[in-house]
Amino acid sequence: MAASRGFTGLWRTYVTLRRPPFCVPAAVRTQSSGGGDLLPRTSLSRPPWADEPSPVGLEEEQRRHAAVVSAVNQRIQNRDFGRLFAVVHFAGRQWKVTNEDLILIENHIDAECGERIRVEKVLLVGAEDFTLVGRPLLGRELARVEATVIEKTESWPKVHMRFWKRHRYQRKRWVVQPQTVLRINSIDLAPNLS
Amino acid sequence: MVFLTLPLWIRNRGPDRFWKVQDLLKHARHFRGRKNRCYSLAVRAVRRAFVYATKSRKLKKRNMRTLWITRIAAATREHSMKYPALIHNLTKSSIQLNRRVISDLAITEPRTFQSLAKIARARQQEGFRAALGDGREPPGVLSRVVMLQ
């Protein structure tokens, strides 16, 4: 599970460069015309962004990672986040949900109207300052997404028509799908993050 | 032919032609021209409309996917990466977000998208380091790399 943040207060491990278009990169492969580059240097042979900055050492990277993890841990302990959003896998689809969201699902669910459901497969949870990305899922004890079944209905009648010209073949069928409406009640994070 | 009374001499047609015609014309009322009024023209137009609706339900899925891919590619290029690199490295890091969700995050949650791009970039660098190794040939192998060292 990876934790990362986009805080502007601390350093950024990724540097956003002002876009100097087509600037000469630091590590230039100086080649004579006899040796030859892999590609001739044209306006499209290099991507329009400059080469990446020099990589930091391993210890520095680990220190930064530990700092980020401890900061996110503290946020979660103090419940310092505002509204949470989550990416949830349900009914064969992925949904980006937050509190008080309505979801329309194009099939039948075995729960009755008014029943509270816990959605288990959570792929990503985010707040304003940090995101928790699951690989591929977040733990069951970590994130909890609860929803209520509001409505179970049918879709409007859709037409399924086949027609072959010059063969006197046409078939028309009306298709009505069952639908369910869920309201996401709450998204919650547990205080313990490894 | 036996017709016992005058009323039976008159041919009896079906009683509900009007409603059958209206049933079809109601699907054509928003069309342009005489197709929204005249039955023969409306039959053909409504048939085409139904067939197009059926086929487009499959096309819509394809078009939406290309749209998501275009949006994700544009967003990754803002972060100095390309779309194939992002998707490949996210899959290698076993992050199974689909393109619809990633494009939604790129639009509404830019910081989360930036963190995904960073994860993909880190995994990419890891892959390069693993592939390049330490630049030496295995011991006992004589090659151009060894001669240049």
UniProtKB/TrEMBL annotation, chain A:
SUPFAM superfamilies: L21p-like (SSF141091). Coiled coil: none annotated. Keywords: Ribonucleoprotein, Ribosomal protein. Residues 28-57 are annotated as: Disordered. InterPro entries: bL21-like, bL21-like_sf, Ribosomal_bL21. One of its GO terms (biological process) is translation. GO terms for cellular component: mitochondrial large ribosomal subunit. GO terms for molecular function: RNA binding; structural constituent of ribosome. Belongs to the bacterial ribosomal protein bL21 family. This is Large ribosomal subunit protein bL21m. It comes from Oryzias javanicus.
TrEMBL record, chain B:
Keywords: Ribonucleoprotein, Ribosomal protein. The keyword Ribonucleoprotein applies. One of its GO terms (biological process) is translation. It comes from the Eukaryota. One of its GO terms (cellular component) is ribonucleoprotein complex. GO terms for molecular function: rRNA binding; structural constituent of ribosome. Belongs to the bacterial ribosomal protein bL20 family. PANTHER family: 39S RIBOSOMAL PROTEIN L20. This is Large ribosomal subunit protein bL20m. It comes from Oryzias javanicus.
